[in-house]
Amino acid sequence: MSQRNSFPFLLLELFDINSGSAISDYIIKYVTLINLQDTSKHVFHIVTDRLNYAAMRMWFLVNPPRKATIQVENIEDFTWLNSSYSPVLKQLGSPSMIDFYFKTHRASSDSNLKFRNPKYLSILNHLRFYLPEIFPKLNKVLFLDDDVVVQKDLTGLWSIDLKGNVNGAVETCRESFHRFDRYLNFSNPLIAKNFDPRACGWAYGMNIFDLVQWKKQNITEVYHNWQKLVSKTHCFLFS
Amino acid sequence: MKARQVQNDCAGAVKKLRAMLHSTEEQLRVHKKQTLFLSQLIAKTLPKGLHCLPLRLTTEYYNLNTSQQQFPNQQKLEDPRLYHYAIFSDNILATAVVVNSTVSHAKVNYSRSNCLGCFYLLGL
User: Fold this and answer.
1) Which of A51, A163, B35, B67 could form a disulfide with B49 if both were Cys (CB 3.0 to 4.6 A apart)?
2) How many CB atoms are closer than 10 A to CB A19?
3) What is the pLDDT of residues B89-107, one digit of tens each?
4) Which residue on chain B is closest to A15 by alpha carbon?
5) Are A144 and A206 in contact (CB under 8 A)?
6) Interface of B with A in 35-74 (CB under 8 A)
7) Best residue in B99, B109, B122 for a mutation probing chain A (most A CBs within 10 Å)
8) In the 8-state DSSP scheme, what is residue A180?
9) Which chain B residue shows the shortest CA-CA distance from A27?
């Protein structure tokens, strides 16, 4: 114990660490490891709507997250994000879309209830498809949903080799659960040609994005093309 | 004779008081009902974003002068060597939880207050 005088007394006090214990070594290694991290290297980019903009800024002005940097933006200040650029914006305002989310449906369509939550009408939920436009100078961005509670250091995610892929995420599928054939209508030749029915669905809550690859592979345009197809043939693409 | 008159007055007064009490109670009932109705109406019709916390924060924000409304270290926003997180949300508390939990697990200091974080992190 005498060798570890530099260790915080609180830990010693509470756990009565003896030098031979594996747990104490683990704690020491872990605490030393996280101590190498420096919060001043973390930058949080928050985008919110007009209604919450001032309040969101005030919150983080009063409660700054240690040395991390905060940016709060109003989605309405993204002038490039308009219905002539983004097909999804055009659709969100369309009467058929509003009917889809707000009109009562027959009991048989209840399996899709999860996807009919009106929250998907908010453009904030579609903003993740415009990351290169929002962060033109960045190479990698970690997207976090607002229902996430982080319980570990995340910095390792930036050094993962995505091997040319654009999105790194946690897969959520099982044998027949959350596979693409559960979501997409593979009797449509367009779908059958472009997707693998056994491909695995992934969690949306925490995604690392390689924006260099995104731009290289022109993902925004691919997304726009699919969005336009969806607006033309909505019921044929999804199962 | 006089005593009788007083007695009559008394009975009248009691009657009058009873009537007043009754009408006051009735008024109270009506007002209670109205309060209940109005508070329900407010709860149901107030846009989600106008609840108490955002409203208070918004007022406080516009009471600051322009220099106080700025965040520090804005030169870091476009530095690709740093760890950048994107959070898109209309929920202030939820966003605060994401940011705080991320930061508190990114670094733990050798101090009493911060060590609460490391116990949590170690699952202890």
Assistant:
1) A51
2) 10
3) 999 999 999 999 999 887 5
4) B124
5) yes
6) 47, 49-50, 53-58, 60-62, 64, 68-69, 71-74
7) B99
8) G
9) B122
A155 vs A43: CA distance, rounded Å: 12
- How near does any CA of chain B get to the CA of A55, in Å? 4
- Spatial CA neighbour of B84 closest among A128, A140, A149: A140
What are A136's two structure tokens? 């033109």
Query: Which residues, numbered 74 to 93 in chain A, qualify as contacts with chain B under a Cβ-Cβ cut-off of 8 Å?
Result: 75
Chain segment A203-232, per-residue pLDDT in tens: 888 999 999 999 999 988 888 888 888 777
B98: nearest CB among A11, A56, A146: A146
pTM of the model: 0.66
Q: Euclidean distance between the first and final Cα of chain A, in Å?
A: 63
State the residue for tokens 């420096």.
A38
Instruction: Judge residue B26's burial from the number of C-beta atoms within 10 Å of its C-beta, 0-12 exposed, 13-18 middle, 19 or more buried.
Output: exposed
Contact B71 A37 (CB under 8 A): no
- pLDDT tens column, A113-138: 555 555 555 788 888 899 999 999 99
Chain B CB within 8 Å of residue A223 CB: no
| Cα–Cα distance list, A149 to A47, B60, B83 (Å) | 18, 28, 18
Which candidate in A14, A24, A32, A69 is best for mutational testing of the B interface (most B CBs within 10 A)?
A: A69
User: How many whole angstroms separate alpha carbon A151 and alpha carbon A171?
Assistant: 19
The torsion angles phi and psi of B96, rounded to 5 degrees, stand at -60, -40
Q: Indicate if the alpha-carbon torsion angle A12, A16, A17, A18 is positive or negative.
A: positive
